[in-house]
Amino acid sequence: MPARIAHISDTHLGSRPSNGVRHNIWSEGMKAQLLENDFYERFAEVFTKIAEIDPSVDLVVHAGDLYNSPWEKNPSQPPLQAQITAMTVLQEFIKNTGIPVLIIEGNHGMFKFFEVSLLESLKLAVPELSVATQQDLKKAIREGTPLEFSFENLDVFCFPFIDSAVLRSSNMIDIYDDWITTYQKRERLRPTVAVTHGMKLDNTLYDAIFSMGYDYIALGHDHRQVKHAPNAWYSGSPERWSFREASEKKGFLIIDIDAGKNPDIQPHHLEFKRPVLNETISISDDDTAESLADKIDDWFSTNGLVADWDSVSAARVRLSFEGTSKRLSTFDLGIALENTRQKVLSHKSEYNLAQFVWDIKQSADAGYSSAAYPEIESEYLIEDPEADFNEYLETLEIDKNFDVETLTKIAVTSLEFAVGKREGKMTSDALQEDE
Fold first, then answer.
1. CATH for 3-269, options being 3.30.160.340, 3.30.450.40, 3.60.21.10, 3.40.50.10680
2. Domain ranges in the chain?
3. What is the pLDDT of residues 265-308, one digit of tens each?
4. Using CB atoms within 10 A as the burial measure, which of 59, 199, 228, 365 is most buried?
5. Taking the complete model, does pTM exceed 0.85, yes or no?
6. How far is CA 393 from CA 171, 292, 404, 408, 417, in A?
7. How confident is the model at residue 112 (pLDDT cuts 50, 70, 90)?
8. Coil, helix or strand at residue 150
């Protein structure tokens, strides 16, 4: 019997953009900051739209990162409104539709050094909810049991987030693979789904999962809605988590699954009233602080941002500045941009802006950065570093004595150490680990 599921992920409830944000702007009822509330609205909107799907789905799977915190760079619990939103939306959805919901734990919303989970407390408030935490995963591996949920017409195998560095330091890489191939096997000829949170970029997407013959693999961690394999997709995040995601389509997936056949994937996309703009402005050789300010004003005007304040459509903007001017130092440029920000974000301004940040791309020793989400920029610094670096190399004249593949590997490995995806120091041995 075929099955139909909805696949969502990376909702990051509790995200609070703070850099370059207009002061004292709140959502209706003052329960959350304005931009924080966007994540709550998207969460509710996704479940509303899933409830309207006809024919209805048999299950909703959430592939991790329900909450934005805690995580390794922010140990605090998610805001109270994030937890209330998760509880109320899930309670109402399950009550009104009777559709079960399963959530696995991602790398966000997880206490790193405590054997407790926010998903367990959520389940106390929503008893009908099914959850799979990292503690559940550790217990299943330790006891040699599957981490599986069976619903009316499909089976789901769960793979909550676990860091490859943790497995490696514990000498458990082979043990984990053996557990997958021994205990996470399908036993019935009916639709079978795997749910996992991981990416190749940080070595948290494990190959053994793809060898098990699951009919569909619901992936989380990558915020893009993208196909990883014919039977494996990332649903992406429903809200723009960083400015790098400004141009991406956001939403959820509906999947029709028949045992032994390729699944039918139907992307559903959301429409946004709040623009998130990520643009580049060139600095000319003779630009001054005044001429650059005029360029910025012209850009704001061209994009319809010189307008009365509207909390629903107030834009989030990041401008990248490229080039140098002999009449404008990096320090003077930074001061000019700070003055512009104070002007456009003041409560008496004529600009419909909720956030204004920037990035200055000049020489390596003259950088001045004001990037939004500084605590997370490194996590998705480059979404596909190998492809990006290869594209960069194609613009250069490479000496034939250099091996392009080796240059690429050095660059990608260096990046992984730089953003904390690998532990220790960059050495020649590190380059050979994956060979």
1. 3.60.21.10
2. 3-269, 276-370, 385-432
3. 999 999 999 999 999 999 999 999 999 999 999 999 999 999 99
4. 59
5. no
6. 37, 32, 8, 9, 21
7. confident
8. strand
